[in-house]
Specification:
Chain lengths: 281, 279, 269
């Protein structure tokens, strides 16, 4: 069963303009020789500390940034060619970290319609997409509400709805939970879980290990390089130097790891529900 | 010496269609040298409560007393109270405006009328307390990294030499390393005699660092007590919108299913209990 | 939101009314005609007719009177000042004399005229924003000015700027409020000292706001690009503007009514 390649990075190096001159001690590239390929339907987690290059990598996936060296190819289109940007962004939608600074519309459904309106679709089609997107993001009852009345978590789900209305097969989220409270985080992850089940390709960037439980695959970035690439269960099984990579180990994971080393029954992935089940059998 | 809140109540937009009761009947005592966390879901009134403590909002119902000085309309003590109760808002780096980090931190003592020759000392002390390197003093605050900006903002409140420090979600948006740095800083300040009041919707820090926790639910006081008491209460009567962190949630779940583990936020205690019990 | 508690600024109030469902282009044109009519108001008695028109529109829009009248609050003081200036400083036939202050009939006439003119201008103008969704308003303006786009007039860009500005006003107010409170907590004072000192006191509020706004502009531009925004070219609408019979009716009746009003006004003067 060969799945379509959504995007492929070949030996990608990126240096931020202005930093090549060596200001602020940052004369090193944000990304160094990164090669990876993401297939359709995968939910890939991209982990790393602040400054590891994960945001930079994300912005290459929808041609917001173009590699300094190497290539980024999305659905067969090379991002170097500026003409491809429009087409690429019709296949890869992006949600950013700050919930406030992504919302354009004054009313929820107007904001969700923004993307499809840019695509020049007929109004009936736009309305259909907005309906579906708001439903998928769990915001259907809020469709007529002014956007400033939404909570942080709701605004972030609105950004997801806006991305969904573009009907792109791939969704990239750049630290979407960084500014959310625990409730907002969990609601967003629920929405993504449902989307994953419908076959959407999701690239999810975070520095929190506890958020990757639903992902298929994890990539770890450290100082601009990929230091690990494998399945999520393998990530938990391997004895990885998280601290060295600046990734915090959540308490639940520490517990899971210690219990495992004492040969106690533990689930393949440390989540509260799974741990309780495993320990109480 | 403490901040005492009695039967505090507050309503936004009274007498209009937008009228909302944001606080109802809140009472607690917050002595210097202790750490009180105020937890609750978004919109439960935590920020409104914080703004009462230094007089930015004056009590509509009930009283707020700081070191014996009551907060009320036209009180002559208002400026003194405001100096004693430092307030750090969420994402405090958004309040930076000065040309240099030094000036940013000097802003508060200048406003309070601190004698000019004392100010450099105040700035240095505040910067050191916040973990800011001396080399940053002459830089523009806008050139700093996110973490440094936040430390600058906190230092700019510490330079008032407050006796109480109220912080609204100070760890928002921080990675785990910065978060640890910040909680250690607050711990040091508490040991030096400052009263620390932490507003949060993240119970992790509240449970591990506080002497007492006040939980708000829709503007009302749900529970006030030690972390252990609060955790036990939340286990029995969960508050909507306030999630328990993973370890306490797991401990409660295990207890529900008959395992003998303490209700705890410390994963090592859970581990000990689980390893102790027979297979 | 201590400092900005009572603003209406004519902000949109949702309602299912015949006025609300009119095409925004029609409403914009009608309001322009009305405003022109008010400018030509001469006789004080004609303001009674304007008041009746406003009352009728308020009923038609199914809005509470208090809400509509509140929109005039910001200019109330200005109107009173204007009226006072006219009352006390106009030369003409004296009515009342108090020491060296003489109130003339011309003065009274002008005071009523200018004062009410200002108030009614604001009331009718804010009526437009009260009954039209901001995005609809922007759409309406964009469509009205799009013929000029051929000559380089940035109709779409202006409309987009307007929508985004409106979308962020409540957010900016909240942020201003928060920054002011943060500076208050650091000992700043906004109500002390002379004018210069007070203006200076706002620097620690304005600079952070500017920083927020510029960062926001950058982030928003990136987010819009990511959603394939390329300006107005080829853009469609989820709810495109549809001109209905009611709109034509209004566009015939309103100018006719205003014409009659102005005619009656002139005959009376």
């Amino acid at each position: 069963m060969s799945r379509k390649t959504v995007c492929e990075l070949r030996d990608l190096t990126y240096v931020y303009p202005g930093e090549a001159a060596g200001d602020r001690d940052h004369c090193r590239p944000a990304l160094r020789g990164v090669s990876l390929s993401i297939s359709e339907g995968e939910w890939v987690a991209l982990l790393g500390a602040n400054g590891s290059g994960k945001s930079t990598l994300a912005k290459h996936l929808n041609a917001l940034l173009v590699p300094t060296q190497g290539d980024c190819v999305v659905y067969g289109l090379n991002t170097r060619d500026g003409e491809n940007a429009y087409q690429i962004r019709s296949t890869v939608a992006m949600v950013f970290q700050n919930p406030e600074n992504q919302i354009v519309g004054t009313v929820v459904e107007e904001d969700t319609a923004f993307g499809p309106e840019n695509l020049g679709l007929p109004s009936g089609e736009i309305a259909r997409r907005v309906d579906q997107a708001l439903c998928d993001a769990g915001l259907a009852e809020k469709r007529g509400k002014p956007t400033y009345t939404l909570s942080g978590g709701e605004k972030q789900r609105l950004a997801v709805a806006g991305a969904l209305a573009m009907n792109t097969p791939c969704l990239v989220l750049d630290e979407p939970t960084a500014m959310l409270d625990p409730e907002g985080r969990s609601e967003l992850l629920d929405v993504l879980g449902r989307l994953h089940e419908t076959g959407k390709t999701i690239v999810y960037i975070t520095h929190r290990l506890e958020e990757i439980a639903g992902c298929d695959r994890a990539l770890i970035l450290h100082e601009g390089r990929i230091v690990w690439d494998g399945s999520v269960p393998d990530l938990f099984l391997s004895d990885l130097p998280f601290k060295e990579w600046g990734i915090d180990v959540p308490p639940l994971f520490s517990l899971w790891r210690d219990l495992k080393s004492e040969s106690r029954p533990v689930p393949p992935i440390p989540t509260v529900a799974a741990m309780a089940d495993a320990l109480c059998r | 010496m403490s901040i005492t809140v009695k039967n505090l109540g507050h309503t936004y937009h009274p007498g209009t269609p937008l009228e909302t009761r944001s606080l109802q009947n809140i009472s607690f005592d917050f002595p210097r040298g202790t750490w009180l966390s105020v937890a609750g879901h978004t919109g439960s009134g935590k920020s409104t409560l914080a703004q009462h403590l230094n007089g930015i909002i004056l009590p509509m119902e009930g009283t707020v007393t700081v070191d014996g000085m009551a907060l009320k309309e036209k009180t002559p003590d208002l400026r003194e109270i405001r100096r004693r109760v430092g307030l750090v808002f969420q994402y405090p780096e958004q309040q930076l405006f000065a040309e240099t980090v030094y000036e940013e931190i000097a802003f508060a003592p200048q406003n309070w009328g601190t004698p000019g020759d004392e100010i450099p000392g105040r700035v240095a002390a505040a910067a050191a307390a916040a973990g800011l390197d001396e080399s940053l003093m002459g830089r523009s605050p806008f050139q700093l990294s996110g973490g440094e900006k936040r430390k600058t903002a906190i230092a700019s409140v510490l330079s008032s030499k407050p006796d109480y420090l109220v912080l609204d979600e100070p760890t928002a948006g921080l990675d785990s390393f910065s978060r640890r740095e910040l909680t250690e800083l607050l711990s040091r300040l508490k040991k030096a005699g400052m009263g620390i009041l932490l507003i949060t919707h993240d119970l992790d820090i509240a449970l591990s660092m506080s002497d007492e926790i006040l939980v708000l639910d829709g503007g009302r006081q749900a529970v006030l007590g030690s972390p252990g008491e609060v955790l036990a209460h939340l286990g029995a009567k969960p508050v909507p919108g306030l999630r328990l962190p993973d370890i306490p949630a797991l401990s409660l779940l295990l207890r529900q299913r008959g395992r003998d583990v303490p209700i705890s936020w410390d994963w090592r205690e859970i581990k000990k209990a689980l390893l102790r019990s027979a297979k | 939101m201590k400092f900005f508690n009572n603003l209406t600024f004519g902000q949109y109030v949702p309602s299912e009314s015949p006025v609300h469902s009119l095409d925004p282009r029609c409403k914009i044109a009608a309001v322009l005609v009305i405003l022109t009519g008010i400018f030509m108001a001469k006789h004080p008695a004609v303001f009674i007719a304007w008041g009746i028109l406003l009352a009728g529109l308020t009923l038609g829009a199914r809005l509470p009177f208090s809400l509509v009248l509140r929109s005039a609050k910001p200019v109330l003081i200005l109107a009173l000042i204007t009226a006072s200036i006219h009352i006390f400083f106009t030369k003409g036939n004296p009515l009342v004399s108090l020491g060296f202050i003489t109130i003339t009939s011309e003065g009274l006439f002008l005071a009523v005229n200018m004062g009410f003119r200002l108030i009614f201008l604001v009331l009718f103008a804010s009526f437009l924003t009260l009954t039209t969704r901001p995005m609809e308003l922007a759409d309406g303006l964009e469509r009205l000015f799009s013929p000029f786009a051929r000559f380089g007039f940035p109709a779409h860009e202006l409309a987009m700027m307007m929508t985004i500005a409106l979308r962020f006003i409540p957010t900016l107010l909240e942020e201003t409020d928060r920054i002011m409170k943060a500076q208050l907590a650091r000992g700043a004072s906004f109500d002390r000292g002379g004018l210069w000192k007070r203006l200076k006191a706002f620097i620690p509020v304005l600079i952070p706001l500017f920083v927020i706004v510029f960062q926001r502009a950058e982030d928003l531009a990136i987010a819009m690009e990511a959603r394939n925004y390329r300006g107005g070219r080829g853009r469609t609408r989820m709810t495109p503007l549809r001109w209905k019979a009611a709109d034509t009716a209004v566009l015939i009746l309103v100018p006719a009514a205003i014409f009659l009003l102005v005619y009656a006004d002139r005959s009376l003067s």
